Amino acid sequence: MLFLPYNISLKNTEIDIYNYIINNLNQVGLMRIRELADATHVSSSTILRFCRKFECTGYAEFRLRLQAYNKSLGDHRLAIAPVDEFPFLEFLKHTHYPDFQEKITAAANILLESDLVLFVGVGTSGIFSRYGSYLFSSLVSLALNIEDPLNMPLYNLVDNRHQKICLVALSVSGENESIINYINHLKAHHAKIISLTNSGNSTIAQLSSVNIAYYNNLEMYEDTNITSQLAVTYILEALARTAHQAKCSN
């Protein structure tokens, strides 16, 4: 809440003050207490009580902290490098190598042999997980996407060895805890795991029946992982098309 790392309880009048400040950060940082009181139709003493709720001894300290907070918002507009196509071109070369083709074929065969196919991912990987389930459903057979692995328990999954289950897990880091828990639970039900990760040495990769790693340069913007997903798109499409061709051949 503003420059505080947690929410505080505000009265209706104080909420009006807060909303005015949020909507006029640049101006409020230069206002005197009387000017802010007039703008929000309250008394100066009400403004002071408001400031103390934000752990400030008075309005002067509040205004300084507000100015610093406003400046920090502008500092977050960091520059990022343009898209670098070279790693993707290198990845495309690798797709012609026998080891990559063997993994695509092995993964496609597992998908074709499965009675139930689940896709799962978190964050950006969740978006491509949905795309993967849509693509596979369109070209091969019905696949389900797990929208929220943290709130989608598998406690009632029937332990039927005759039912073949496959989980396709997407994770850039390969270390997402909720997906690892999903994998461990499904492996207890004899499921096969196909994973798409940025590294073949990650935990998720090591737990998988087949792992397809794409080795892109890891790129972060503040706390957000913005690693390119071009290779993931290619792998998903290659899997679905390979499985479709094999299905038609059979």
UniProtKB/TrEMBL annotation:
<dbReference type="Pfam" id="PF01380">
    <property type="entry name" value="SIS"/>
</dbReference>
<keyword id="KW-0238">DNA-binding</keyword>
<dbReference type="InterPro" id="IPR009057">
    <property type="entry name" value="Homeodomain-like_sf"/>
</dbReference>
<protein>
    <recommendedName>
        <fullName>MurR/RpiR family transcriptional regulator</fullName>
    </recommendedName>
</protein>
<dbReference type="Pfam" id="PF01418">
    <property type="entry name" value="HTH_6"/>
</dbReference>
<keyword id="KW-0804">Transcription</keyword>
<dbReference type="InterPro" id="IPR000281">
    <property type="entry name" value="HTH_RpiR"/>
</dbReference>
<dbReference type="InterPro" id="IPR035472">
    <property type="entry name" value="RpiR-like_SIS"/>
</dbReference>
<keyword id="KW-0805">Transcription regulation</keyword>
<dbReference type="InterPro" id="IPR046348">
    <property type="entry name" value="SIS_dom_sf"/>
</dbReference>
<feature type="domain" description="SIS">
    <location>
        <begin position="107"/>
        <end position="246"/>
    </location>
</feature>
<dbReference type="InterPro" id="IPR001347">
    <property type="entry name" value="SIS_dom"/>
</dbReference>
<dbReference type="InterPro" id="IPR047640">
    <property type="entry name" value="RpiR-like"/>
</dbReference>
<dbReference type="InterPro" id="IPR036388">
    <property type="entry name" value="WH-like_DNA-bd_sf"/>
</dbReference>
<feature type="domain" description="HTH rpiR-type">
    <location>
        <begin position="1"/>
        <end position="73"/>
    </location>
</feature>
